[in-house]
User: Fold this.
Amino acid sequence: MDYSKQHEIEVYLTEEQVNKRIAEIGAAITEKFQGESVYLICILKGSLFFTAELAKHIKLPTIIDFMSVSSYGSGTTSSGDIKIKKDLEEPIEGENVIIVEDIIDSGNTLSRLMKVFRARNPKTLTLCTLLDKPDRRVVDDVEVDYTGFVIPDEFVVGYGLDYDQQYRNLPYVGFIKNLE
Ligand code: IMP
Ligand code: MG
Assistant:
């Protein structure tokens, strides 16, 4: 690890703003699934903090599981294919499944992933994303149920999001100012 390569990061969404919005989404989910249970699926690694914060605001019986996928592609863009690197521990058939994603960019990853989940016959399938860059979308079959923030077409890091695996631990969402 080369620690000398640090970037200048401009805060775009503060921790307070992000957590406030996540609390609102948690409340909306609690209301929607009143009397039922939910099954949160954290898409690793980017959704780590979003899932943790969201789960605290869902006042319902809740199970949390994790999936890790890689999308083939280089640099800051993704291609169409995905590979499941770590799958869920249990079947999700008959569950109120809520997919928790960090960001939807081209939409390629989610487009593929939602097909995988649909094929496992959940009772309901809900998609939550912390961030959405609609200007970048190349697919038309990704319908988001809950969006934290719609953001412009800029590369962001923090609150789970990385640049080359760095900056996930920043408590806020920021733009990298000097991205070469
Ligand atoms: P998509 O398949 O193009 O929608 O890309 C989704 C994935 O690309 C996300 O889960 C992120 O891992 C990554 N990604 C897209 N935009 C950004 C960004 O601005 N910052 C960090 N990661 C990003
Ligand atoms: Mg990522």
